[in-house]
Amino acid sequence: MRPSRAAGSTPGKPVDHQTRDAAVGYFRGVATDDDTSSAWLVHGERIIYDNEWIRLFLTDVEQPDGERFESHVAKLKAAAMLVLIDTEDRVLLMWRHRFVSDRWGWELPGGHVDEGDDPEDAALRELLEEVGYRPKTLRHVTRFQPMVGMIDSWHDVFVGEGAEKIAEPTETNEMARMEWVPLSSVMSKISDGDIWNSGASIGLLHVLAERAQRPSS
Q: In what order do the strands lie in the sheet with 54-62?
């Protein structure tokens, strides 16, 4: 017996994700040309909690085998972070505490992408506010979702090189300290658990992978 459909969901009518998410500043993925027979079908959803930081939905979803049930889905604002590298092959990291997990770790400068904002502009703004630097060059390297089963929140990662100090940080609650960390020590910090944030891990591992592919001189 299939679970009953929740009140407030719309039977047989797919959710217009593009219209809804564009209105609140979320980023969606791209379509696929692959066989979609294994895709889960969304029949409808209803908001059970909503504020400026998080929207929590009960989503009426059907699996390929026909089983239908409600699943909790959290939709968060997009985020952007920046790997800043200086001329000595060091990356600027922030040592900070996260109260949710009650844990300290090294992180990249970054933050939320506000509605109508561009991820690149957000990354540069957060870099300036949190550490007072700007890069001479900047490039986008990847976009990812940190927890795809229940949370919808696009994260954009940028790499900047040629760090220029132009101001003092204006965000005083973001970190205990910042430090220029040699890229050569990043892998050990990840292995030791000192770097455990998803954005920092993905951004830094991307940079290390790129450098490993460079032709040896």
A: 41-50, 54-62, 68-76, 151-152
In the chain, % of residues over pLDDT 70:
84
Q: What is the CA radius of gyration of the chain?
A: 20
Tokens at residue 34, please? 């692959």
**Interval 123-152: pLDDT, tens:** 999 999 999 999 999 999 999 999 999 999
d(CA 10, CA 45): 7
pTM (global) more than 0.85? no
Counted residue by residue, the chain has a size of 217
The 10s digit of each residue's pLDDT in 14-36 is: 334 444 344 334 444 556 667 88
Q: Report which of 50, 72, 56, 59 is spatially closest to residue 8, judged by C-alpha positions.
A: 59
Q: Distance (Å, rounded) from C-alpha 80 to C-alpha 200?
A: 11
The SS3 assignment for 196 reads coil
Residue 93 CA: distances (Å) to CA of 50, 117, 130, 161, 214: 33, 24, 11, 14, 24
Cβ(15)–Cβ(42) under 8 Å? yes
To which residue do tokens 């696929």 refer? 32
Do the beta carbons of residue 183 and residue 195 sit within 8 Å? no
| Range list of H helices, the chain | 17-24, 119-131, 186-191, 198-212
For position 3, what pLDDT does the model report?
A: 36
**Quick count: other Cβ atoms within 10 Å of Cβ 152?**
20
Closest CA to 194 of 211, 181, 207: 181
